[in-house]
Task: inverse folding
């Protein structure tokens, strides 16, 4: 056990998200070598302006996406627990998206394979910029063996619905 | 093409429904950069010969939405809206923050040129290479919230159906107008998100005249490559680290100033600028904070996030949601109307957003109307109700009437200058002294009399954008026209509040790959853009023309001594302005009448302006 790094998880607090989208910039620079919001592994949705939802994989126990892939293109990184996409095997069929309770994966806009957060190999870039600015909408935490992470695999619309009534009151629910 | 650009503009003719793309060559980009600079160039090339005849609210006007080379790269993303302004009859580079510029670049364009006008309400939909002019009759008449909600939903549904396997679609970015723009209200803004606005210039009216309710864009591609990725990463990190330390701006936004610009610097408009000092601590930022449900809110790439979201939970304005009024709106929809009540101020701001009005110009013209009421020039019969200082409900009602051009609102919808001309005729009294505007544009909420604000005595006098407080004509510490710095920000299209001079030129280099130096900017590029913008402003027309001998001038009020506060008695002297004005002309390479000199044009390689200047001289009797 010694020497092995504990697994991490990215905790998310949507209410604290400023909509700065610096996570999209950091992630796409790291993974694409350029600024590319639509290819960022974390995508910031804006169901209502003022209610921004950073949307990224939660490594949910059971990994329904991995299970659903007919081409064995997805596997779980043993060290980090992140889902790794084998670009050669992935056909872009979209089965992983359907299987994900939060519809979090998406198909790369140019290259046609599934895009899923790889936790930056254990050192998330998105978290760095978010924490640096004091927003703490995304924070790295140790991950424990628990089913709890599953509950974070939700669509931005579902998340927004809850937050709208909490923040703005029921009259605003119709927005989402 | 240099890095940072695509070198591609989208051109849409709403009369013929033609859509095409245009290549912009490298030389033009190097000379005019983007945003305001490029906008001025395009407008001069296309309309310069017959500028005076072009009705800003007619089919011949051109509406431009332009990014700059640093849009999406420099922290905080903005786009520049331009065209012939229905306020100044010149060009105003009017910028608005948000994701629109990033989406547009992701779709493969540096900007949009919109010509002609549609017969029926339409919106423009840009999804990468697919560009469509679409029916907007279901959106026409809708306020901000409804417009955004309906359009966002239907576009997401459509995209999801078109590419069912791709995954969830993010929301498109939308520029739109409210009921005010639809009615060609000259003080209507081009709006973005729920609360963002390109206010100065009145381009909401231009969109309305073209029957263009909205422009929506969703791009799937990356931003253009940068010249030096490693250098860019380092610099981005450094600038962000500096910005993150700026506590005041980050925690309070400009909303801290609603109290301090009055109390500390005696330069806040109060009751139509009859005073500029107040000590109303209840209007301080901490009394706004209780409405904030989000302290940090911002746009793409911005670590400052100076916006705050305000929500009123109970009471007479229950359910109101907006960004917390920034300083300009605290002043113009607050103190300038005698309102020192945060809740009333938040309410008026949210209504201005919903109606698609520019809060600054609206507060300027309503303050003007209220002073005329105070002086008995406008009466209850003219207005329909009493218009007393501090009466939130009365001003809210007036604001609706302006946006819908009802009753006296129709007249005030023309903006302060034009309303003053008409009311003077109607009432047979000269009301221009109460119009706090310069060349058709109500001045921003920073007075010049106390001498304590950043605005110097000539701040608005020679500005290429009239009363625009983001484009002021101070002489800088090196005796250069200070407006050149603002042209730079509007052309690279970056946010003033994130501006860090020591990083900017270096930033430019790692993104665009060319070495723009301060000398080149101040010596050549900025003077060229300014000369063209100045010429277009002085060409003016068709309904109003400017004579620099008369209109390069402060509002009359600024020559009256401040009546209260620690700077009581402070005043700007007319003779001093005359002198400073000439110094400014000289620094800009303009002659004693404020017209760009022939040798300036020659040096800058824009002698083609000569024929336009000839027309101006002729009109002014200087030929
Ligand atoms: S970096 Fe943090 S605050 Fe900014 S958009 Fe991403 S999650 Fe939100
Ligand atoms: S959140 Fe979605 S993408 Fe991530 S592991 Fe779970 S199913 Fe897979
Ligand atoms: S952890 Fe890394 S890969 Fe995952 S969203 Fe953040 S930056 Fe992207």
Result:
């Amino acid at each position: 056990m010694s020497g092995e790094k504990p697994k991490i998880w990215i905790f998310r607090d949507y209410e604290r998200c400023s909509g700065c989208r610096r996570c999209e910039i950091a992630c796409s620079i790291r993974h694409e070598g350029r600024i590319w919001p639509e290819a960022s592994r974390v995508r910031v949705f804006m169901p209502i302006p003022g209610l921004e939802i950073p949307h990224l994989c939660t490594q949910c126990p059971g990994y329904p996406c991995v299970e659903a892939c007919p081409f064995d293109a997805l596997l779980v990184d043993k060290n980090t627990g992140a889902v790794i996409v084998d670009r050669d095997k992935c056909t872009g069929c979209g089965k992983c998206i359907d299987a994900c309770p939060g519809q979090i994966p998406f198909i790369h806009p140019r290259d046609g394979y599934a895009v899923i957060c790889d936790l930056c190999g254990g050192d998330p870039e998105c978290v760095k910029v978010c924490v640096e600015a004091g927003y703490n909408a995304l924070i790295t935490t140790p991950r424990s063996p628990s089913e709890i992470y599953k509950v974070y695999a939700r669509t931005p619309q579902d998340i927004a619905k809850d937050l709208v009534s909490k923040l703005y009151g029921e009259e605003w629910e119709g927005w989402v | 093409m240099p890095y940072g650009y695509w070198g591609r503009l989208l051109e849409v003719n709403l009369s013929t429904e033609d859509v095409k793309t245009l290549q912009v060559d490298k030389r033009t980009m190097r000379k005019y950069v983007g945003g305001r600079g490029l906008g001025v160039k395009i407008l001069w090339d296309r309309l310069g010969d017959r500028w005076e005849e072009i009705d800003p609210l007619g089919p011949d006007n051109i509406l431009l939405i332009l990014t700059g080379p640093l849009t999406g790269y420099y922290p905080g993303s903005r786009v520049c809206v331009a065209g012939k302004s229905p306020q100044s009859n010149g060009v105003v580079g009017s910028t608005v923050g948000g994701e629109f510029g990033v989406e547009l670049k992701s779709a493969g364009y540096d900007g949009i040129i919109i010509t002609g006008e549609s017969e029926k309400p339409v919106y423009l939909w840009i999804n990468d290479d697919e560009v469509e002019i679409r029916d907007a009759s279901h959106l026409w008449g809708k306020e901000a919230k409804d417009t955004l909600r309906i359009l966002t939903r239907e576009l997401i549904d459509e995209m999801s159906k078109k590419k069912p396997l791709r995954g969830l679609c993010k929301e498109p970015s939308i520029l739109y107008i409210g009921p005010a723009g639809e009615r060609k209200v000259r003080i209507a803004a081009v709006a973005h998100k729920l609360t963002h606005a390109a206010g100065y210039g009145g381009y909401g009216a231009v969109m309305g005249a073209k029957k263009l309710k909205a422009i929506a864009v969703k791009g799937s591609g990356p931003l253009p490559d940068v010249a030096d990725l490693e250098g860019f990463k380092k610099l981005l990190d450094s600038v962000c680290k500096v910005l993150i330390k700026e506590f005041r701006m980050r925690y309070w936004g400009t909303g801290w100033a609603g109290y301090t610009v009055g109390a500390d610097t005696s330069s806040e408009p109060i009751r139509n600028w009859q005073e500029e000092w107040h000590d109303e601590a209840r209007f301080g930022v901490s009394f706004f904070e209780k409405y904030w449900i989000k302290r940090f809110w911002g746009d793409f790439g911005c670590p400052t996030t100076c916006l705050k979201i305000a929500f009123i939970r109970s009471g007479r304005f229950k359910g109101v949601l907006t960004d917390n009024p920034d300083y300009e709106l605290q002043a113009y929809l607050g103190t300038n109307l005698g309102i020192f009540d945060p809740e009333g101020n938040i309410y008026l701001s949210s209504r201005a957003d919903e109606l698609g009005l520019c809060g600054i110009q609206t507060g300027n013209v309503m303050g003007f109307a209220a002073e005329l009421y105070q002086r008995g020039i406008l009466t209850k019969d003219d207005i329909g109700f009493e218009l007393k200082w501090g009466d939130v409900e009365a001003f809210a009602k007036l604001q609706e009437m302006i946006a819908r051009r009802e009753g006296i609102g129709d007249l005030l919808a023309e903006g302060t200058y034009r309303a003053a001309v008409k009311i003077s005729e109607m009432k047979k009294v000269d009301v221009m002294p109460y119009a706090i505007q310069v060349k058709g544009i109500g001045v921003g909420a920073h007075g010049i009399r106390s001498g304590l604000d950043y605005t110097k005595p000539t701040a608005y006098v020679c500005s290429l954008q009239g009363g625009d407080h983001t484009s002021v004509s101070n002489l800088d510490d090196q005796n250069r026209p200070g407006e050149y710095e603002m042209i730079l920000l509007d052309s690279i299209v970056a946010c003033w509040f994130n501006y860090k001079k020591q990083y900017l030129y270096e930033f430019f280099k790692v993104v665009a790959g060319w070495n723009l130096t301060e000398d080149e900017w101040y010596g050549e590029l900025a003077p060229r853009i300014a000369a063209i913008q100045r010429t277009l402003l002085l060409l003016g027309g068709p309904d109003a023309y400017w004579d620099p001998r008369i209109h390069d001038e402060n509002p009359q009020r600024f020559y009256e001594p401040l009546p209260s506060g620690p700077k009581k008695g402070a005043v700007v002297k007319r003779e001093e302005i005359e002198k400073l004005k000439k110094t400014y002309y000289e620094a800009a390479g303009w002659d004693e009448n404020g017209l760009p000199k022939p040798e300036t044009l020659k040096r800058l390689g824009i002698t083609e302006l000569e024929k336009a200047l000839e027309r101006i001289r002729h009109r002014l009797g200087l030929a």
